[in-house]
Amino acid sequence: MVSGANTPLTVDLTGYNVAISAGANGIGKVMAHSFAYCGARVFVSDVDTHALEMCGHPGMKADAGDPAQCDAFIDAAVKHLGGLDVLLNNAGIAGPTKLVEHVTPEEVEATLRIDLASMFAMSRRAIPVLRANGGGAIINLSSAAGRFGFPLRAPYAAAKWGVIGFTKSLSIELGPDGIRVNAILPGPVDGPRIRAVIKAKALASSISENEMTERTVATTSLNCFVTQQDIANMALYLASPFGATMSGQAIGVDADMQTMM
Questions:
Q1: Crossing angle of helices 154-174/105-112, nearest 10°?
Q2: Choosing from 16, 37, 156, 237, which is the catalytic residue?
Q3: What is the dihedral of CA 239, 242, 247, 251, to 10 degrees?
Q4: pLDDT digits (tens, 9 = 90+) for 199-231
Q5: 16 is a catalytic site residue
Q6: Which of 20, 28, 101, 125 is buried most, with the most CB atoms less than 10 Å from its CB?
Q7: Domain-wise residue ranges, the chain
């Protein structure tokens, strides 16, 4: 049920300075490895200290849900790298899996704070550096949930729709500065996060995890999950000269997903 890439896109990014939030685990870690493989200098953040120690890239512990720590991460990245060409806003949480009337205000706030507000915080700190650099790229991780309704996942979907509005608005603001802003919309990406979501939704729907997995991949035309490398490869493309005229786009990397469930 998994299709897609397992090796990085071949593109020369030698000399690029790249900051990746939540870059020591999951998709972020694959993106960090992929940018480094292509010659870029990478600096990552994460809340998982052990993952930071093991990921093989310089970085710092930072909670994307704390604006002050977002500022500190961008400042540290610029200092360590000597500049900034690409910001990858990757941090996010799944949020609650439950009916809206059972979602607490605290769960809504936490989901919006980490999945959306962190991108404002990271970007606002990075923009002056990118502008002084003569341009660059900001890449925001949204989701297929950013273009569909997503029952039982309303806070997450609301945040991911917000990421697209933020992306498109920021691209207009920053276009004159040569700063390109795009969003990647992953569909069902094989890995621990989607397995946890499937487990929670299976429990909420009173069906088995296998049945929920089958239902999930059936929502795609290609009837499969995509890989973390597929997401990383799109980020490589958008950051590279090949994506020089790409801005304000919400790009699905989702095996042609038709609906959320």
A1: 30
A2: 156
A3: -80
A4: 888 888 899 999 988 888 898 999 999 999 999
A5: no
A6: 20
A7: 17-187+227-253, 188-225
